[in-house]
Amino acid sequence: MTLQKRNLIISLMLAMFLAAVEGTIVTMATPTIARVLRGFEFISLVFAVYLLTSAISTPIYGKLADLYGRKHILSIGILIFLAGSFLCGLAQNMTMLIIFRAVQGLGAGAIFTISFTIIGDVFPLEERSKVQGGLSMVWGVAGLAGPFLGGFLIDMLSWHWIFFINIPFGIISVLLLQRSLYETPQKRKHRIDYAGTAALSLTVIALLSIFLFNQEADSGWRPVIPASLALLGVLSLLVFYKIEKKAAEPVMPFDIFTKTSVLINIISFLVYGLLMGVDVYMPIYLQNILGYRPTASGLAMLPMSLSWLVISFNLGKLLVRHGGKKVLLASNAVLLVSTLLLATLGIDSPVLLVLAYGFVIGAGFGGASTSLTIIVQDSVQYNQRGTAVAANTLLRTLGQTIGVCVFGNVFNLYITKYFIQQGINGIDPSNLYQSAITHPAVTQEQVRLSLNSAMQTLFAVFIAISFLALALSVVMPAIKQEKTGVE
Known about the structure:
487 residues; mainly alpha; Growth Hormone, Chain: A
């Protein structure tokens, strides 16, 4: 591998790490920030607007990258992310922080989308799986490093520095990107699809808002708000479809949606929803049911990251030899087996068993995530690759966002159901530990049992999702992978 390619990989990994670690650092630092800025009631919005703006901007960046080149559009996205980070560090109240987090999300949308598109352009297949595996593994490293880095910065400096620390590394990423990536996008006059962009943005906002912003609504309005948002989402989607059929240069041309790509996008939605569920609820299982400290639970997730990396590094030869469908099928079969194994975990399971199961599920995620990305990259021509990857990234983001909201509702519902079956009413799952202290009929052991009961239900949901992903892999048409990439 040439020095130019190595510098490009470093640039992309730096950018991806910044966007990935921001989630874990902010999660850890939010209680401190909310206390200082006096805005505990707005904590959820700090995360919601980041997810929302990154999801909205994803397909837009994909189209712009196809029109004007990957390097400059990604550089602009990184600079927007850095501007949002700098402004977040200067925030004087929660309203300012939420607005500036939205700016950060706008930049993150470019990083999540164009980084994988560039890899598809530059690297041949056998190198591509290794690079994409490393890029995907950045999320695992960020999950482990984020809490330690955030705690250090807050303890030694202040919460402002969890945002300021991004700036020098982001600038290095842009400089390396500009020096190591050479491209000659076709020079012609372009017509930006403003109407399609607006309609697509409204669709995403409406659909995500059902899950993100309806958690605290008054019970009398709960049925009305999601129904109204769903209707708005469907109507705006229909408008978007009509606009795109007539647009000269649609933001998301529908000819990229073949039978294969539609199935790949649905599988991506399911797999990444499942990934979010494992990432969020396995630490809860380790800490709140088995009783391990956060640091120990983070280390217990390490085997999943290691097997993900090992599989990704060896996936290129398998894709060339057996094709994308067989590799994806095998990966989803491993995911199904791993979720069946998770269902055997209980309230007193040994941590070694969790480590072993984590290694298995990491292998499934590593194979599925990398092969899904490569299949999408190879399913379209170069001038549509950014758009195709962006559409897939959007479905992944939607899967993660919707998945974590659905899992949260299921988890809370079955905690409440457990206590009702025990003859105990009035337990609020979102405030369970306080309830355990103040409610005379609830003991700490019952809290553990209720969490374990809800976790078993979630494991059953995970099995259903992995089974559906496997079934869709079976009916997907066979895919022949090319051995070389675009240099």
